[in-house]
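Hi there. Long-time user, first ticket. I'm pasting a complex I've been working with (about 772 residues overall). I'd like to know whether the download I got is complete or cut off, because the file seemed smaller than I expected. Thanks.
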Amino acid sequence: MLERLRQIVAVTAMGLRAIPERVGASLVIVIGMALVVAVTISILSMSVGYMRTVQNTGRIDRAIVLSHGSQFEFASALSRDNVLTIADAPGIKTAGDGKPILSAEYLTAVLVTKKTNGLDVYVSLRGVGLEGLALRPEIKLVSGRMFQPARHELIVGKSALAQFEGLEVGSPVPLPDGDWTITGSFESNGDEHESELMADSETLLSTMRANTFHSVTVMLEKPDSLEQFRTAVTTNPTLAVDVTRETQFLAAQSKYLNTFLTMIAYVVGGIMGLGATFGALNTMYTAVSARAIEIATLRAIGFSGDAVLASVLAESLVLAVSGAVIGAIAAWIAFNGNLHAIGGLVFRLTVTPSLVALGIGFAFTLGFIGGLFPAIRAARLPVADALRAT
Amino acid sequence: MKYFPLVLNGLWRRPARTVFTLLSIAVAYVLFGILSGIDAGFAHTLEVSRMDRLFTDSRFGTPMPLAYGEQIASVPGVIVVAPRSGLFGYYQDPKNFIFVLCADRRFFSLRPEITISPQGLATLLQTRTGAVVALELAQQHGWKIGDKVPIQTQTAQADGNQVWTFDIVAIVDDANYPGAGGWFIANYSYLDEGRVTEKGTISRFLVRIMDPGHGGQIGRQIDKLFANSPVATRTSSERSGAQSGLQFFGDVNFLTSAVLGAVFFMLLFLSGNTMLQSVRERIPEFAVLKALGFSDSTVLSLVIAESVLLCIFAAAVGLLLSKLIIPIARGPLSDFLLLLQMPWTAMLAGFGLALIIALLSSLLPALRVKQLNVVDALVKRQ
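Hi, the file is complete. Here it is re-exported in full:
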């Protein structure tokens, strides 16, 4: 057993040392895999960045209440009475003054211009309750001051500020009853709210001449309190609402776009990978025929077929994986951390270690397939014929 | 042409190498075909969104009075104004989201792309609770003409009931029209007479104008009419709306061209390597050809011809495959994007790229063969 292993190591090292002699052909595998991995990782970095932004927003100890059957906040309507009833339900955490921590929210959209391409985009303007900040401790002002209730003031998330025109602190934002002023900007742990504007919900409601809220988000006493809270509000005959844990609600909201991006990445990566595999097969078959005499000599002096097989396979894998590493590094340098906006939602492209591992694993599989068949041929090479060939 | 067998022989000298190279190129062209199909879908969406169709929306989403329509119609250059409102709801399960578009006869004259028969339209207008639905939606829920379809909404009727029931009177198939898969068009009168809140209001006016070039100016004139009214408006052409809407899918053009750039770089390298290897192996053979009296330029063109034949044939195989795949992939993708057959311009561009790859990748080997010294090559000194 040990002897076989030593043989494998010896022949593999010999094959790898000879790579520089076949540099042109070997580069086909390296460049092919580098491009496949770079493209796949770049597309997936969009979906990872998007999902990370969405997941940062959600907490398991928060729950969102929408009117029954509503799939998203805009389609939901909750009256003032509904909000008061919900606030009385058990399971909601209370602040120091004994008031439940919840925010009845009203959502509208403001038309802005995207800095990169000058096209129109709608950015969410979220009206939050007075307890909205206790509900979302992750929100921190980075410049200016907080909006004040009953005044036409709002604050802007830092991603929205970076991506869209005219949202600087002090800028006017036109709403039905005149301009509102941006008094500050905030950060919020890199989540969805950083792409939004926020204002006081009662003030916004009267400006918009609306009398219903869209949603109520509550802070639960503890994550397990969800059932208690849900039972209380869904069995109340005066309410027709659905209660969802915030994390689950956001996961459902983002499923559509995430599926789309992931599907594109796998289809494009899969097709490119297939092409790269044919290239690898080509290169390795050539490598085997170039090394035919060397291989036959090794076999003649007693090296086993396994050792030869392992050496060819190893060569293909080394080339494929080094290509993948180059591709992953290129994708990381080019895209990691770049701001990207889909609609009004801004997120950072994110190349994570697990994405890099995925890319390397993908290239490893392709390199294995590309090396296996040439390796089998090398192992079965008729020794006498090969030696006689020259 | 008489050298054609020679070119074929050269290619077929090592079948495995040629086949693998061919397959790599063909696979890349499948991707090219599909990405061009996606691009074509986006281009089509922009193309059918018209410059002479304006949308007047409420600037802040609050409902507009129906009476705005008459004022808009009085703006010079406006031909037809069609109000439409909407009901958000679902069928049976909240997952089956339905947008019930409530309009009247004018809506159909503004949207001539809806392939409804004159009888179908007449039936809709005569049936208060009538609805015209898209074939895709009908198939999804198994609806037939004559079916009664209850839609659960957030809008209450006079008796407090939030379920609105519609009679399907016609089914329209506009598969090539972006977003037409979800059409559910009903009568505005049914909505407005039935509801208790927001009576007499509208969520959008569609405006047909005489001269597409005056869209911006007319839009501004319309918005000026209501600038100081309780509900201000915002008017934009369908085209600019579509441009903004398409951003949702990221910078698709950038994405597809970046991917294609990567793919073609890979191909250049791959086929270049194949040609280089193939020629290197056959140096003595080319020397024999030259010794037999083939001119420098003839052997040069033999090498180039091999490369061109390989690349063009592979491109043709790949493009043909993508043509077969597109109709199959179209259905599952229709939730996300409109996938069309690639236009012939994209196809020509594909072949053009194949030619460029072929020429570039055969350049070095061809020059090498051209400059070959016959005597050296025959005694294998090269």
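A couple of notes from our side: Residues 291 and 376 of chain A are 14 Å apart (CA to CA). The first strand of chain A starts at residue 62 and ends at 67.
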